[in-house]
Amino acid sequence: MVPRVYEINDSWPVFTPHDPVAGALLGRVPEDFPQYCVAATDGDRVVARGLGVPFDAESGGREEMPDQGWDRVLVWAYHDRQHGCARTAASALEISVDADYLGRGLSYLMLAALREAAGRQGHDALLAPVRPTAKHVHPRVPMTEYLRRRRDDGLPTDPWVRVHVKAGGTIEKVAPASMTVSGSLAQWRQWTGLPFDRDGDVDVPGALAPVHCDTAHDHAVYVEPNVWIRHAVRPHTA
């Protein structure tokens, strides 16, 4: 089952696998932290996955919700695993639903399952550096401003943030540098099909913020903001 959780047809942007933290560590998470991960199946087919990790948020210089968000908690999780550190916090990493199974409520079920998994490990909260799914439509709008956008019923306009809020999550803060992808201009052209031939900000499909292009130094850098959301859970260790 563990290798098959990555067989689903997900909708992540083409450049996200080139985050070096993701490339080095994410594929190991279901095997190394199985108690914090969940999967949904339809027969023999894996149709959704939810990944999470524990980490020590109380060591010197650390905090529960770091500004470097997704990248930072994943690195901390593996550092702490290697050194036998305490597991004082639990963070979700992703929930991905197969494209053929979207619109069936699986997102809510997977979020609930991740919360349950954290509770079984004795945690009283599940943290999540959430990637707002509609933010890419407004890449030049600062995340703080984007989060202020609400529907008439008071809920967030962003559908994925709304799922978390409706499930009882509270928006805590922005993680301004949650994921970083850097590469040469040739690499960015290969990944995106865009020319990357002018200095400045480039809007890339799927990116939550512009990618900064520097032709003189032959590189472009994408720094993705996420949103820290906290879910209270009931610890229920055996």
Structural overview:
With 238 residues, the protein is an alpha+beta fold. It has a single domain, classed as Gcn5-related N-acetyltransferase (GNAT) (Aminopeptidase, 3-Layer(aba) Sandwich), CATH 3.40.630.30. The chain has 7 helices and 8 strands, in the order ααββαβαβααβαβββ. Strands 4, 5, 6, 7 and 8 form a 5-stranded antiparallel β-sheet that branches. Strands 1-2-3 form a 3-stranded antiparallel β-sheet. Strand 7 (211-214) and strand 8 (219-232) form a beta hairpin. The longest helix has 15 residues, at 69-83. The radius of gyration is 18 Å and the shape is globular. The mean pLDDT is 95.
Question: What is the CATH third-level topology name?
Answer: Aminopeptidase
Structural class: alpha+beta
CATH superfamily: Gcn5-related N-acetyltransferase (GNAT)
Give the SSE string. HHEEHEHEHHEHEEE
Tell me the fraction of residues in β-strands, as a range.
25-35%
The tally of strands reads 8
**Could you name the ranges where pLDDT drops below 50 across 5 or more consecutive residues?**
none
Short descriptors:
Aminopeptidase; 3-stranded antiparallel beta sheet; 5-stranded antiparallel beta sheet; 28% strand; alpha+beta; globular; 238 residues; 26% helix
Concise structural overview:
By secondary structure, this protein is α+β, with helices and mostly antiparallel strands. Helices cover 26% and strands 28% of the residues.
